[in-house]
Amino acid sequence: MKYMLTYDLLESARNTQEWFGATARAMASYPAFALSLNPALPLIAAWGEVTERSFGRMISKPDWGIRSIVGPDGQDNLVDVTPVVEKPFGNLIQFFVRRRPPMARKVLLVAPMSGHYATLLRSTVASLLPDADVYVTDWHNARDIPVSAGKFDVEDYTLYLAEFMKALGPDTHVIAVCQPVPLALAATAYLAAEDPDAQPRSLVLIGGPVDPDAAATEVTDFGRRITMGQLEHLAIQRVGFKHKGAGRLVYPGLLQLQSFITMNAERHSKAFSEQVFRVSRGEATDHDAHNRFYDEYLAVMDMTAEFYLSTVERIFKNREI
Question: What average pLDDT does range 144-169 have in this prediction?
């Protein structure tokens, strides 16, 4: 499955489903059909709308959507997302609050690289922003990174974190969420050994696989059962011709999304069925609970093959951390 055609086939299937949805929505919404009073037509249009939106979101990077915060004077302060350090595989970004002096507390949020974008931490950023200067690791979609940029594995990820920490200085509080927990720990230990003056003031680790066997899950069990050869054969593909990273070996985000949905298939199926009926009754809105959740959940990004495989091998199998 390392060939470009398999990657393009996956994208073609997604594109076709989006087209089916758009076609169904458009055809079932013709004004002339309203005279038929056929109850199936609103359902077809609703199915098309939900399907088109869902499959379209799979290739769209969500917006942070944090426009402003309320300052201590009760006025809205605009928020700009600005890059602080720019690198091929990810940037360090700051949520810069206009008309506000630097805060006493500086927080670096280490976002996961596990198939979703850093915008998953939107609510965390919004909650921290009134009381701190907030920085986030904003990882790039591997399919948009040219092969000439080189490799990116767990060691490169760790070195990126160390560089970001050094750029922010020793008065930084680091918070790592989920997947990057062991790598944030490794980056902090690396700085403690190589440049003690640059290590962060504090490190908060939330829900990550420091010891994957401490609380076994389906994911950790799968990581132990499958061999690295099997995993590489089943999961790794080459980026297709239409992207900047054409030829790069990746673990496609669409495959990761398929895994996510399969683990809770009944729940997701019920959620989408209920949304179709809500749309058909005119009860759904563009920013209702379903759309807010799935607009983010369905937006996936590719990971470099070496990062994905080295994560499984070194963290889940060998437990090197």
Answer: 96
Confidence of residue 34 (pLDDT cuts 50, 70, 90): confident
Amino acid at 273: S
Report pLDDT digits (tens) over 206-219.
Answer: 988 888 878 777 77
* 3-state helix, strand and coil shares in percent for the chain, rounded to the nearest 5: 55, 15, 30
User: Are 30 and 81 within one domain?
Assistant: no
The least confident of 103-112, 210-219, 237-246, 262-271 is 210-219
**Does residue 210 share a domain with residue 143?**
yes
Could you list the residue range(s) of the whole structural domain that residue 272 is in? 4-62+220-251+265-317
Per the structure, how many domains does the chain have? Answer: 2
* Residue whose C-alpha is closest to residue 3's, from 299, 249, 316: 249
The answer to whether residues 16 and 118 belong to one domain is no
Residues 153 and 193 in one domain: yes
Q: 45-80 burial string, b = 16+ CB within 10 Å, else e?
A: bbbbbbbbbbbbbbbebbebebeeeeeeeeeebebe
In the predicted model, is pLDDT for residue 226 greater than 60?
Answer: yes
Q: Tell me if 317 sits within 8 A of 224, measured CB to CB.
A: yes
Q: Assess whether 158 and 282 both reside in one domain.
A: no
pLDDT over threshold 60, residue 2: no
